[in-house]
Amino acid sequence: MKCPFCSSENTRVIDSRPADDNNSIRRRRLCDDCGKRFTTYEKVETIPLIVIKKDNIREQYDRSKIEGGVLRACHKRPISVDQINKLIDEVETEIFNREDKEIPSSVIGEILMDKLKDLDSVAYVRFASVYREFKDVNTFMNELKKMLQ
Q: Which residues contact 65 (CB under 8 A, 6 or more apart)?
């Protein structure tokens, strides 16, 4: 493992323990060259998941795309990084438990919106406005009315 500070490959594990989700291992590492410590996480490698986009283009699943969308939706909201990571972990668990090799992006979006609705209503509306491509104020109001019922 390369040191993120000095790029040396001379690092070693000084502590290992299960991560909070019990689906990964948290490792504390020490760089023997610069003496700095850093944390890595080890997860079980899963079968590659292919996401089918709206235009039928297929691409490999990329967690960072979900992270980006959720971070934008949660911008300036009282939501911790731990809450965001937990939400994304839950979404991943749900989509990987389906054991499908391909999944439409619309399914991922709906799962994500359900989780966001429970976490923060403003983040949910922000995400939904982009995901559902609200074209005008009426569409936006219809979504808000659904939430209030």
A: none
